[in-house]
Amino acid sequence: MSNAINLDDYHEMTSTDELNHIVRKSRDAKNGGFGVLSTGEKLAAALVLDRPDWLDQVGYTMAEAIDRVGAEWLALIPEAARRLAYEAEQEASSHEAL
Question: Of 44, 39, 86, which is closest to residue 62 (Cα–Cα)?
């Protein structure tokens, strides 16, 4: 048996890893950890969380941020935003139930 990974499976695994990374770093930024992120992570988090003030803070326009994060991460940002929005909804619901 071969241990070779199908190229499509590899891209899917890589994409999932990257998505989880973006979600994790965006969550960190949302919880006060913006300052410790790399520039690319800050830009991605700002885009995920719809925070143009963060883009301004690091001296990037929206167009520059899009260019800097690149096509691969840019394609993952909508899903990352949906995941964090879902988390926020779940958290709000759990607080309302108390």
Answer: 44
**Which stretches of the chain are DSSP H helices?**
7-28, 39-48, 52-57, 62-97
Q: Which of 28, 54, 32 is nearest to 62 (CA)?
A: 54
Q: Which two tokens stand for residue 41?
A: 């992570």
Q: Evaluate if pTM is beyond 0.85.
A: no
pLDDT digits (tens, 9 = 90+) for 49-92: 999 999 999 999 999 999 999 999 999 999 999 999 999 999 88
Q: For residue 45, which amino acid is it?
A: A
Name which of 19, 39, 30 is nearest 83 in CA terms: 19
Q: How far from each other are the two terminal CA atoms of the chain, in whole angstroms?
A: 54
Q: How many CB atoms lie within 10 A of CB 26?
A: 27
